[in-house]
């Protein structure tokens, strides 16, 4: 159930998810070079 809702939100917020991923990757590269 939760996974289905998550996929639905991901489909709606795909652009926001991509921005979130870029933000996380930048933070990881900054903390873990």
Task: Describe it.
The relative contact order is 0.11. It is built from two helices and no strands. It is mainly α and 33 residues long. The chain has helices at 2-12, 14-31.
- Number of β-strand runs: 0
Label the structural class.
mainly alpha
- What's the SSE pattern? HH
Q: So what's the overall shape?
A: elongated
Low-confidence stretches: none
Please work out how many helical segments DSSP would assign: 2
Q: How is the biggest beta sheet arranged?
A: none
The end-to-end span amounts to 37 Å
Radius of gyration: 12 Å
User: What percent strand?
Assistant: under 5%
**Mean residue pLDDT:** 76
Helix content: over 70%
Name a few traits of the molecule:
33 residues; mainly alpha; single chain
Set out the fold topology:
Elements: H1 2-12, H2 14-31
Question: Would you summarize the structure shown here?
Answer:
By secondary structure, the chain is mostly helical. The chain has helices spanning 2-12, 14-31.
